[in-house]
């Protein structure tokens, strides 16, 4: 069983988990992904919730249907996921950062400095 | 397809309605949670569905038949709760055999596996079991019947936390392997909300809402912000609850029929509201709480 | 969806078999009742051994009156017992509706009555053996002079069984009426006592109606019709009876 976390809706967590599997290369384009029943068992959730996660990915053209066979990874799934995460997730996180910075009465320069530091740290970690 | 169709269903006891003009349809092969406070009419509804008791007025069909005195409904449904009394004359092992004789879809391998897993002994008698063990046995019996309509009324009463988790896990796995219509009534939604496809929330014998679980989880949002901002925002919203969270700050739980970003841009902090809390707010007797009457 | 389609006859038979297993106390209580009757009967003979011939002859018809009376009582009480909440609700653990519940109850009570008739007859023979060994020859000789002693045991079994099943049907009806409302627990005994006091006593008339019948076929007709009628009446309150309301 995979543990759930946070306050995010479960079907979104399912979708993100599948996306991560695609980003990491576990699922390649045109691979069949888990069925709603496998996901339900894996995450200990109702299969309808799992189906909702799968359908979300289908609507975003990350998965496609083969009638009677299940859902498969599209050719440009990874590109779509990356674009989506940049536009939605990262933007939203940055907005939260800006909001918090405003609360703390930081000026823009100070915030930019922190961001540069963070990038710098990542560079060191990777080195 | 709908397994259950009820129209204006009413059941009164000595003139007091327990179920009061309920109109509801339950779709087949889904797990539906029947949620509500004590006395909301959950058990009364469930007992009518399996033909134990008869409605006072209104119409009701289960598998397209009126359940009271329907052999077809009885053969294809099971009602499990902690008040089930099994005959003292038979041992647990014999009870399972009786179950096999009566229920055509009975799965004895499944029953025996769980029977051993929960350390029951075939020579034990039901009336000698502890409360938690009784409900555990009842659960095994209920699931093993593989009834098209399987009803659990407050199934985890008396079970310890470990058994409770096992129960919900078994229920889900068995449902995945053998999809069928399962109703679970409880007032603790948070305990098993992950299992549910649909939720029927009842209060005072009536339906408060009936929707997919995933929608219920996004039904409401909690907004926190300065009094003035929140107060202004609330005027055209459906407010489920509100309180002073700190001096000058207000927290309000509102129906989520707007874009959250809008509220956040005004400086309010939005947090999700758990489905179980939504149910509590929707069935609260007063807008306040026990603190307001004492 | 895959439905179980079950004909009512099949369910009635399943319920019947279940009841034979689950209600085994009914049969242990039969043994206890008849043993008690045997004990009282043989004791009664010994103490009244020196009494008048008439008393003994009356006490010792073909199976021993006390054994039969106790068996009637047993049938009556057990029929009431199976109409009580616990028994009624047990049925609904398994597949049933009120028709199949009623029919399987009837089958069970009929079976129990046959067993009651059989054991009562056998116990009657046992009583005679006991009396042979425990009483003086004159008493025993007086007993076997009684023409009813040599009645065909089969007829004895059938007659007793028919009486028992009639008592069962009566108890079953009373039980079901009491389940309708507690007040009947008071009303019914009052009616019975009232019947005894009534002039001419209705209870005696009923007694004469059955016991006074010398034609075996007419007796059969009377008991069977009465039993069927009583069972049919019982279904009226049972049909609407709610389970665990």
TrEMBL record, chain A:
DNA-binding as UniProt keyword: yes
Keywords for the protein's UniProt record, in alphabetical order: DNA-binding, Transcription, Transcription regulation
Domain HTH gntR-type: 8-76
SUPFAM superfamilies (alphabetical): Winged helix' DNA-binding domain (SSF46785)
InterPro entries documented for this protein: Tscrpt_reg_HTH_GntR, WH-like_DNA-bd_sf, WH_DNA-bd_sf
Top-level taxonomic group: Bacteria
PANTHER family assigned: HTH-TYPE TRANSCRIPTIONAL REPRESSOR YTRA
Protein name as annotated: GntR family transcriptional regulator
UniProt lineage: Bacteria, Bacillati, Bacillota, Bacilli, Bacillales
TrEMBL record, chain B:
Domain of life: Bacteria
UniProt domain ABC transporter: residue ranges: 4-229
Keywords: ATP-binding, Nucleotide-binding, Transport
Keyword flag ATP-binding: yes
A UniProt-annotated Pfam family: ABC_tran
Alphabetized Gene3D superfamilies for the sequence: P-loop containing nucleotide triphosphate hydrolases
InterPro entries assigned to the protein according to its UniProt record, in alphabetical order: AAA+_ATPase (IPR003593), ABC_transporter-like_ATP-bd (IPR003439), ABC_Transporter_VariousFunc (IPR051782), P-loop_NTPase (IPR027417)
GO MF annotation list: ATP binding
Name of the featured protein: ABC transporter ATP-binding protein
From TrEMBL, chain C:
Record key words, sorted: Membrane, Transmembrane, Transmembrane helix
Keyword Transmembrane: yes
Residue spans crossing the bilayer: 22-46, 66-87, 107-134, 154-174, 186-210, 216-238
Protein name from the UniProt record: ABC-2 type transport system permease protein
Source species of the chain: Lentibacillus halophilus
């Amino acid at each position: 069983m995979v543990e759930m976390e946070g306050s995010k809706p479960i079907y979104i967590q399912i979708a993100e988990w599948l996306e991560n599997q695609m980003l990491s290369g576990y699922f390649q384009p045109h691979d069949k992904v888990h069925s709603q029943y496998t996901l339900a068992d894996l995450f200990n959730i109702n299969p309808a919730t799992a189906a909702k996660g799968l359908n979300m990915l289908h609507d975003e053209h990350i998965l496609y249907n083969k009638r009677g066979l299940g859902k498969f990874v599209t050719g440009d799934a990874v590109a779509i996921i990356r674009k989506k995460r940049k536009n939605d997730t990262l933007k939203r996180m940055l907005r939260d950062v800006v909001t918090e910075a405003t609360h703390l009465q930081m000026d823009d320069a100070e915030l930019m400095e922190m961001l540069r530091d963070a990038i710098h740290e990542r560079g060191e970690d990777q080195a | 397809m709908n397994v259950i169709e009820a129209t204006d269903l009413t059941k009164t006891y000595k003139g007091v309605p327990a179920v009061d003009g309920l109109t509801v349809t339950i779709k087949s092969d889904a797990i539906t949670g029947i949620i509500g406070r004590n006395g909301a009419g959950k058990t009364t509804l469930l007992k009518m569905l399996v033909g134990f008791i008869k409605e006072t007025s209104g119409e009701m069909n289960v598998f397209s038949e009126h359940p009271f005195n329907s052999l077809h409904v009885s053969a294809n449904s099971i009602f499990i709760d902690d008040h089930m009394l099994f005959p003292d004359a038979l041992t647990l092992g014999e009870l399972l055999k009786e179950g096999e004789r009566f229920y055509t879809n009975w799965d004895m391998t499944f029953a025996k596996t769980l029977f051993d897993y929960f350390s029951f002994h075939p020579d034990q008698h039901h009336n000698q079991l502890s409360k938690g063990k009784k409900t555990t046995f009842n659960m095994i019996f209920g699931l093993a019947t593989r009834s098209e309509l399987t009803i659990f009324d407050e199934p985890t009463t008396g079970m310890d936390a470990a058994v409770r988790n096992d129960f919900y896990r078994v229920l889900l796995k068995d449902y995945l392997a053998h999809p069928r219509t399962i109703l679970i009534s409880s007032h603790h939604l948070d305990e098993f909300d992950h299992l549910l496809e649909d939720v029927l929330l009842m209060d005072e014998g009536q339906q408060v809402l009936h929707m997919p679980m995933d929608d219920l989880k996004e039904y409401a949002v909690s907004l926190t912000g300065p009094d003035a901002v929140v107060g202004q925002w609330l005027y055209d919203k459906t407010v489920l609850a509100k309180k002073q969270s700190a001096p000058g700050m207000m927290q309000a739980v509102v129906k989520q029929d707007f874009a959250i970003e809008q509220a956040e841009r005004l400086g309010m902090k939005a947090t999700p509201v758990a489905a179980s809390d939504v149910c509590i707010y929707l069935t609260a007797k007063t807008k306040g709480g026990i603190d307001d009457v004492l | 969806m895959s439905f179980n389609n079950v004909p009512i006859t099949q369910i009635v038979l399943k319920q019947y078999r279940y009841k034979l297993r689950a209600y085994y106390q009914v049969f242990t209580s039969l043994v206890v009742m008849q043993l008690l009757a045997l004990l009282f009967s043989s004791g009664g003979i010994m103490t009244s051994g020196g009494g008048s011939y008439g008393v003994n002859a009356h006490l010792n018809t073909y199976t021993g009156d006390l054994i039969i009376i106790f068996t009637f009582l047993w049938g009556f009480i057990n029929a009431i017992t199976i109409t009580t909440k616990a028994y009624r609700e047990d049925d609904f653990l398994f597949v049933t509706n009120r028709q199949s519940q009623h029919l399987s109850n009837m089958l069970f009570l009929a079976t129990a009555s046959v067993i009651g008739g059989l054991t009562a007859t056998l116990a009657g023979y046992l009583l005679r053996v006991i009396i042979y060994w425990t009483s003086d020859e004159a008493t025993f000789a007086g007993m076997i002079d009684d023409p009813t002693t040599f009645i065909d045991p089969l007829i004895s079994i059938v007659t007793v069984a028919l009486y028992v099943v009639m008592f069962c049907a009566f108890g079953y009806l009373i039980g079901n009426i009491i389940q309708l409302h507690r007040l009947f627990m008071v009303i019914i005994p009052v009616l019975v006592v009232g019947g005894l006091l009534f002039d001419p006593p209705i209870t005696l008339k009923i007694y004469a109606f059955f016991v006074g019948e010398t034609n075996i076929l007419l007796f059969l007709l009377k008991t069977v019709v009465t039993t069927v009628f009583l069972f049919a009446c019982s279904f009226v309150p049972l049909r609407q009876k709610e389970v665990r309301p």
